[in-house]
Design goal:
Blueprint lengths: L1 H28 L4 H5 L7 H11 L5 H10 L5 E11 L5 E5 L3 E3 L6 E3 L3 E5 L8 E6 L5 E11 L20 H36 L4 H15 L2 H15 L24 H29 L3 H8 L4 H13 L3 H10 L6 H6 L5 H10 L3 H29 L7
Antiparallel strand pairs: 1-2, 1-7, 3-4, 5-6
Helix pairs in contact: 1-14, 5-6, 5-8, 5-14, 6-8, 7-8, 8-10, 9-10, 11-14
Length: about 400
């Protein structure tokens, strides 16, 4: 088992890099650019935009941009700063960069680019700021030097996904803050979907061709065909507006200290869980029915009947254990999807989960947050299919993962 898992993880490495290349290419081809988003303020000068573009490396070749995003640029010179050593009033010597001051080539006059600028004792952006100088303060140029500026990005392979353009925070922190809401909703969906879908599939196979079987197949087709967003809006209009018995959305009432325990706000989970669980019930019931029909006429079932075992024990203990193997294909990605959120449903019901955060990032062109979500999603998908293989052996001891 351990050797199998290790081999699958090694095989997943090229898959992961292929996903990163594809997703990064799509991001580069998308309209807009990070500089325009980060310098949307009307007062931003073209010089400031050009300096930010050099710092971010958006003008570099696509391959260089991808490598910087992947492995970082703390080893790469991304800019060159000219530092001016000046003498201030009282004989104080300080350093100011060309991002803070401008020198007239003809007169040598020094002018600040802002009304007040911080100065340092060393020509280094990380050096301690020891004071500030104003435009009316006397400044005399002593000397200047060129300093290489290295990048500050460590790359996603070292856990650095940058800073969100919109929230000005680490994307991983933003995703972690919204994970509990997505996990909570998706666990409810998985529990409801499996607890309803599996018995329906078993009974539909046992009563093959009868009314229950035909009705369950019709409902399964309807459950797959009905768009989630349309059903969600109908339920909101009926139960939230017309009957006014369920909240229209959100996770809980706003209160100090966050949301209370789940069992104190179940009314908020009923509508989104119902909409999402319908598709799970439809898919699981059809899988279990088809697999049950393959096993219900097997020799071990006839042997169990000849021993006088109860039909319920035969159906739900012996036959279902063999019939549940195809469900493992669904279970692996479904378990991992607990962390992924549901984009459409979370947006409609204003559920503060990862899916809603991702939609806001896409619409707002928040590239660091989008790429962090894509990378995490790809890793979880790979893990999900690995879980499916492991579940095969759990459900059927005859299967050996060698």
């Amino acid at each position: 088992m351990i050797r199998f898992i290790f081999r699958r993880l090694v095989q997943a490495i090229p898959t992961f890099f292929g996903i990163t290349i594809l997703s990064y290419t799509i991001m580069l081809l998308a309209p807009g650019d990070p500089v325009s988003i980060m310098t949307f303020a009307p007062g931003t000068s073209q010089e400031e935009r050009d300096a930010l573009a050099r710092q971010l490396g958006v003008n570099d070749p696509p391959l260089m941009q991808y490598l910087r995003w992947l492995i970082g640029d703390d080893w790469l010179v991304v800019n060159e700063l000219t530092w001016y050593q000046v003498e201030l009033e009282g004989g104080v010597q300080a350093w100011l960069s060309d991002q803070q001051v401008a020198i007239d080539d003809n007169t040598g006059e020094i002018s600040l680019l802002a009304s007040r600028q911080p100065y340092r004792l060393e020509p280094d952006l990380n050096a301690e700021i020891v004071g500030r100088v104003g435009r009316r303060d006397p400044i005399q140029l002593i000397g200047e030097t060129e300093v290489d500026v290295y990048g500050e990005n460590y790359g996603i392979l070292r856990g650095d996904f940058g800073t969100s353009f919109r929230y000005k925070e680490n994307p991983l922190k933003l995703i972690a803050e919204r994970l509990p809401a997505s996990i909570e909703l998706n666990i409810a969906v998985l529990v409801v979907g499996l607890s309803i879908g599996m018995p329906i599939g078993v009974l539909a196979a046992v009563w093959r061709g009868k009314f229950f079987d035909n009705a369950s197949r019709v409902l399964a087709v309807v459950g797959d065909a009905v768009p989630n967003f349309w059903l969600a809006l109908l339920l909101i209009l009926f139960f939230g507006v017309y009957l006014d018995i369920l909240p229209l959305g959100d996770r809980c009432d706003y209160q100090r200290g966050g949301c209370p325990a789940v069992w104190l706000r179940l009314e908020y989970m009923i509508l989104p869980t119902t909409v999402m669980a319908l598709g799970v019930v439809a898919g699981v019931s059809r899988l279990v029915r088809a697999s049950m029909l393959d096993n219900i006429s097997s020799d071990f079932v006839r042997t169990a009947r000849s021993k006088g075992l109860n039909d319920r024990i035969i159906w739900f203990k012996h036959t279902l254990r063999n019939a549940i193997i195809p469900v493992a294909t669904f279970m692996g990605p479904a378990i991992v999807s607990l962390l992924g959120g549901a984009v459409i449903i979370e947006q409609i019901f204003a559920w503060p989960g990862v899916g809603r955060l991702l939609l806001q990032a896409v619409t707002g062109q928040d590239y660091p947050l989008v790429m962090a979500s894509v990378v995490i999603g790809s890793i979880l998908t790979i893990i999900g299919y690995l879980l499916s293989d492991i579940l095969y052996a759990v459900f059927d001891p005859r299967i050996r993962l060698d």
